[in-house]
């Protein structure tokens, strides 16, 4: 009964307010004449339209994310695992570091974030990379050499270890090796420092000629980051060839390894150096040059004939400038060349393109190098040449003087003072070196180093990037030898060889343009 009474009460109230509603409806009703049509605007209609519109908008907002739905992705096992891991994740504040460092693989589980006001630290940019890979070379059935750069700050403060392994392509078998790290740049590095890793195995790897991969693990040296796995060398099936390790099968007698060449190099000086040493080392020699910006178009013009003859390999290393190391990454380059030339020749020479090797006429290069059978490295003495000092008689014919080669004109030697350090250069048997430097290697595995007589090099400092005449001081031809006030003495050793060198160049590659 109570329910029925309430219902009648409601009906009664509605009947009582109906006249009031009609009055308001009439007050809010208006007519607009549009070509004979009468459009009535009512509050009820407007409210219903707005409610429907809002409902449609809310439904669309819910369905919009499904436009990019990919069943293959969202139904995959991998994605399911990720979703499960997210559901099990700890509260948001405990993942601040991980979220702020999405470009790093961080493990921050050891950091206690359970108390206090947790602050986040967001990294921006990248100061240095952990490891810059350049090259890796096989040194035998069970040893490899890996050359690269690493962040100097990480190397200095964390001293991160390295590890290596061999993965067989045929069986997938993993063989663990031992990585020995060497830093051959004597701490000269800047943002980056050179690191050479020797990876040794207790057994032969890859000798079945089925191929495989050499893996290097580069560590950050802390507990928060996992080591980076880097495939540094891949051998294809049938690539392994044990015969290359036999010195009797080396294709050359001598290999030259050049440092990073940069700046505005004189094409004519490069031409002179190349022709001289092509003759000096003989037909069974090869030159590996490294272009760090110095081999511009005019220089390449004088090198191209030698490249076509197979005497020169030109390596473009300009990208190394991105990674700031010592002297255009000179240590990196010479170590790469060391291992590249390891099984190319018995002796590899390291010196610059403003330096000229010379052997006394009473002997020859082979005799000097092989004089001591236990020597695997020879240190070569420098003869410094006075910069810009020439004999005035060379200026009597302007055209003839200009066409003379640099080492024809510069004929005054600085005195060699005992007790004063002079730069030295060297040659070594690359297969016996674990790493090398600019002036010598201190990482020879076998033998000893000597400084034999009969070989030296002439250093024409500052001439290679001089794009005009090398002469700036002229000596009276009537008094060529009396120069005590200048502290120099006459030395025409190299000048006397110019005629034969020019003849050799014309014979091998023909006439070249004279481009200062």
From TrEMBL:
Family: Belongs to the glycosyltransferase 92 family.
Membrane topology of this protein: Single-pass membrane protein
InterPro entries, alphabetized: Glyco_transf_92
EC number: 2.4.1.-
Pfam families membership: Glyco_transf_92
Species for this entry: Ceratodon purpureus
UniProt keyword Protein biosynthesis, yes or no: no
Bilayer-crossing regions: 46-69
Keyword Lipoprotein: no
Key words of the record: Glycosyltransferase, Membrane, Transferase, Transmembrane, Transmembrane helix
Localization per Swiss-Prot or TrEMBL: Membrane
Protein's name in the database: Glycosyltransferase family 92 protein
GO cellular component: cytoplasm; membrane
Domain of life: Eukaryota
Gene Ontology terms for molecular function: glycosyltransferase activity
């Amino acid at each position: 009964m109570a329910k029925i009474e309430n219902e009648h009460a409601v009906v009664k109230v509605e009947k009582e307010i109906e006249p009031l509603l009609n009055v308001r409806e009439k007050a809010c009703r208006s007519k607009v004449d549009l070509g004979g049509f009468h459009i009535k605007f009512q509050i009820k209609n407007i409210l219903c339209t707005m409610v429907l519109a809002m409902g449609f908008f809310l439904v669309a907002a819910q369905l919009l994310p499904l436009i990019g739905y990919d069943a293959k992705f969202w139904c995959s096992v991998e994605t399911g695992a990720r979703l499960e891991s997210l559901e099990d994740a700890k509260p948001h504040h405990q993942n601040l570091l991980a979220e702020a460092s999405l470009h790093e693989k961080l493990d921050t589980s050891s950091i206690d974030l359970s108390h206090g006001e947790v602050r986040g630290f967001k990294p921006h940019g990248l100061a240095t990379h952990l490891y810059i890979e350049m090259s890796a070379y096989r040194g035998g059935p069970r040893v490899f050499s890996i050359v690269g750069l690493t962040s100097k700050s990480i190397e200095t403060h964390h001293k991160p270890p390295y590890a290596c392994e061999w993965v067989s392509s045929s069986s997938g078998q993993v063989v663990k090796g031992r990585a020995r790290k060497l830093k051959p740049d004597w701490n000269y590095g800047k943002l980056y420092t050179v690191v050479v890793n020797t990876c040794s195995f207790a057994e032969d790897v890859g000798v079945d000629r089925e191929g495989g991969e050499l893996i290097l693990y580069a560590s950050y040296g802390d507990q928060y980051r996992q080591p980076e796995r880097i495939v540094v060398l891949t051998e294809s099936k049938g690539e392994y060839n044990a015969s290359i390790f036999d010195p009797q099968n080396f294709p050359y007698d001598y290999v030259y390894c050049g440092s990073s060449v940069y700046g505005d190099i004189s094409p004519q000086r490069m031409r002179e150096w190349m022709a001289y040493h092509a003759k000096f080392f003989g037909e069974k020699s090869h030159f590996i040059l490294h272009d760090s910006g110095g081999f511009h178009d005019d220089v390449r013009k004088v090198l191209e004939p030698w490249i076509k003859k197979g005497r020169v390999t030109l390596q473009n290393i300009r990208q190394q400038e991105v990674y700031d190391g010592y002297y255009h990454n000179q240590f990196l380059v010479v170590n790469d060349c060391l291992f590249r030339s390891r099984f190319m020749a018995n002796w590899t020479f390291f010196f610059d393109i403003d330096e000229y090797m010379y052997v006394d006429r009473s002997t020859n290069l082979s005799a000097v190098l092989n004089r001591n059978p236990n020597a695997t490295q020879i240190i070569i003495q420098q003869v410094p040449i006075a910069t810009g000092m020439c004999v005035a008689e060379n200026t009597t014919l302007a055209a003839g003087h200009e066409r003379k080669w640099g080492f024809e004109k510069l004929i005054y030697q600085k005195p060699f003072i005992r007790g004063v350090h002079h730069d030295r250069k060297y040659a070594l048997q690359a297969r016996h070196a674990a790493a090398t430097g600019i002036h010598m290697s201190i990482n020879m595995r076998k033998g000893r180093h000597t400084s034999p007589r009969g070989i030296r090099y002439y250093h024409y400092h500052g001439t290679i990037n001089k794009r005009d005449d090398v002469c700036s001081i002229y000596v009276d031809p009537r008094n060529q030898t009396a120069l005590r006030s200048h502290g120099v003495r006459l030395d025409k050793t190299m000048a006397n060889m110019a005629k034969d060198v020019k003849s050799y160049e014309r014979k091998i590659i023909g006439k070249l343009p004279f481009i200062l």
